[in-house]
Amino acid sequence: MNTLGEKAWECRGKIIGLRVLENGKMEMTGTVSGRMFDGDMFTSYFSYDMQMRGDGTAHGSIRGMFRTLSGASGTFTGEGNAVMGPDGSSKHRGCLCYSNPPGKYATWNGVAVVFDYDVDKDQNISAVGWEWK
């Protein structure tokens, strides 16, 4: 049986770009900083392409990278769903898959990290990720 494991990371940040693409798609670019499960501080940059739906929800794919203060780094891709608020806020839920070099975060190569991130009306991000083993 698969269960949610330990908290992988927690972070805050900002949407730094929005771009309207063709066919009702939108690209959101952001940066976040936070703390890994082991206390190491990190910064991450990502792009999230969303297909808007008529019911106020969206489905999207995300890709990005992270780097910690101790020098570890890695990349990730994922998918998620979002509920868009009338004030420009949004709630995103989904799953990330990592591709990390050997080191302390290489164990994430074999698990999924589920995420829960919210964007407020001022485009501020708060997010948490948990290992799914």
Q: Could you characterize what this model shows?
A:
With 133 residues, the chain is mostly beta strands. It has one domain: Beta Barrel (Porin), CATH 2.40.160. Helix content is 0%, strand content 69%. It has no helices and eight strands. It has an eight-stranded antiparallel barrel with strand order 1-2-3-4-5-6-7-8. 28% of the residues are buried.
Can you give me a brief rundown of this structure?
The chain has about 130 residues and is an all-beta fold. Helices cover about 0% and strands about 70% of the residues. It has strands at about 5-20, 25-35, 40-50, 55-70, 75-85, 90-100, 110-120, 125-130.
What's the arrangement of secondary structure elements?
Layout: E1 4-20, E2 25-36, E3 41-52, E4 57-68, E5 73-84, E6 90-99, E7 112-119, E8 124-132
Antiparallel strand pairs: 1-2, 1-8, 2-3, 3-4, 4-5, 5-6, 6-7, 7-8
